[in-house]
Design brief:
This protein is an alpha/beta fold. The chain is 34% helix and 26% strand. The strands form six sheets. The chain has an eight-stranded mixed sheet with strand order 3-6-2-1-9-13-14-12, with helices on both faces.
Length: 419
Amino acid sequence: MTRLVMKFGGTSMADLERIRRAARIVSAEVKSGKQVAVVVSAMAGKTNELVAWTDGVGAAAAGLPLSDDEYDVVVASGEQVTAGLLALTLRNMGLNAESVMGWQIPIVTDEAHARARIESVGSERLDSILGAGGVAVVPGFQGVTAGGRITTLGRGGSDTSAVAVAAALECPCDIYTDVDGVYTTDPRIVPKARKLNRVSYEEMLEMASLGAKVLQTRSVELAMAKQVPVRVLSSFVEPDENGNLPAEAGTLICDEEEIVEKRIVSGVTMSRDEARITLLGLSDRTDAPADVFTRLAEAGVNVDMIVQSQARTEGAVNLTFTTGRRDAQRAADLMSATQSEIQFEEIRIDADVAKVSVIGVGMRSHAGVAQTMFKALADKGIKFQAISTSEIKISVLIEDAYAELAVRALHSAYGLEAV
């Protein structure tokens, strides 16, 4: 019998009426003959509320270990509530549903509380429920260490939970959210943005890491590694009078080889979670950049774009790099505290920047993609401050005020409204 993992996000679990709608969608898949496991997020806004409660309590007293493990106990409870509510609703509809906590499956993770990574997912408990004709309802976002302590996977971790469960059950994964698929760009910025029927794992990974908020980056990495087909669908649909769901809906995330017509560019993304840090008058010794980035890496600061240019001072360079806004001040403080050791004259931080990117697997085999991008920006008078590239993407750093203008210009330049 065909198996399927379904995942419902926070907006799909926001209240009892939306939980009932999710239950009707689950029921339609069960009645079509599938064995179904469902992964759920907490109600919209609930995790933020729980995090605020832990912040309100405050840190552990001096001499005691950090309280990250107890933080996980609190914030993991949101998904436990929705798992129980969905199971209750499904039973009310006549389906034999059973909620199964992450520690009961078990979903085993490392011990990095609040940002744990999944190491293994047991399938025996889920096999038993599905084999008996039941629906297994699993709280996303949570796992358990080998020592039995509850962990959480970081924000958006329910996507990763769903893909991991699908990999363990060797079946596809349908992600139900508040959008009906993956678009060429954010429709709120470009009303003519088009929904894509298929997107490769690599394209989706780039999109997710560069500002598209449809899927968590780690969930796409896992789907690609385990070759789990993932569909992004809207939870705001209803089965028809015969109990059937729309056919061929949403966007399929799959292997590149399954996409017959490879687009040169599939999408344009924008990220405002960027900050630019510049070290002016950095010593021109050969190991200076390595010294800077080693210190940042050891402090857990992720760096993206890097530009080095000649400084006005002889024997010195200017080193510019970008990082997430939340990490910017920490990075700047680290650099300032070690200024005499690193040997630079001044540090500057600019948070009024945005990263705009074009992504597409067809870029591997087509020339002129960069030329189109830079001409479109130049025609709008938009200057770029840094560039980074891969085989399937080009990103530029620009002033934040021009971000949406750049997205619209690039979407038009690549003809994405006609996809």
